[in-house]
Amino acid sequence: MRSLSIGNSFSQDACAYLHKAAASAQTDWECVNLYIGGCSLEYHAENLRENRQNYALEINGEDTGRKISVSDALCTLGDFDFITLQQASHFSGMKETYFPFIRELYAACRKYQPNAEIVIHQTWAFEEDSAHEAFVNYGSDQKRMYNSLCSAYADAANALGTIIIPVGDTIQYLRENIIDFDRRKGGAPLTRDGFHLSIPEGRFIASLVWLETLAGIDARDISFLPDGMTEDRRITLAKAVHSFLKGK
Fold first, then answer.
1. How far is CA 118 from CA 12, 49, 136, 147, 177, in A?
2. First CA to last CA across the chain, in angstroms?
3. Domain covering 2-247 assigned CATH 3.40.50.2300 in the classification
4. Interval 188-217: pLDDT, tens
5. Would you kindly state where each structural domain of the chain is located, as residue ranges?
6. What does the pLDDT look like over 4-58, one tens digit per residue?
7. Segment (H or E) for 58
8. pTM
9. Of 28, 55, 135, 207, which sees the most CB atoms within 10 A?
């Protein structure tokens, strides 16, 4: 399996453990990420039109040291099974920032990778006490941001006729239903700085969601153990993620 993410630091979070997590479930997965920090759909579309080679090329969570354009990635890196699109986190709940840019990206992906499944990577809301400067656009309210991004991503997916990788849904479910992550009850944050996923737990959760959603791999069958995580914790998180996804 091969995936290409036209993304930013949030796809970087999601892809960090994907290769190793898949391998632990006897699946060979090459994960390619095009990285520009904070890159929005509008900027991705502009880069595509101008054929700018300004993305860091990351493979299986490692920076290759190479710069590449979206067009080059689509045309020169071979065939992909999946291509993921996402909005920058600060714009994720603002529907007006998605179009026409996501359609431009989708059209290019469909043209140059006709056999790939093009899907949307749903990002997550900021932590309740996040100091991110864009959080004020959502009233510094995690639930408001979550509801807004859910609606925006759903509209985009419906317009493109594609599916969503529900990382944002899963993160919010764990925050609201697992006491370990309930900040109001002293739970641990699922971000490391108020917006990027925590290491190792947040990133591990994202990899489980990707693999169960895209490849049908039961999260409980993924035995990869990131540095800093206990086996008991891995089992607990895998069960929680699988239970949530199965119920969706």
1. 18, 19, 32, 23, 31
2. 24
3. no
4. 999 999 999 999 999 999 999 999 999 999
5. 2-247
6. 999 999 999 999 999 999 999 999 999 999 999 999 999 999 999 999 999 999 9
7. strand 55-59
8. 0.96
9. 207
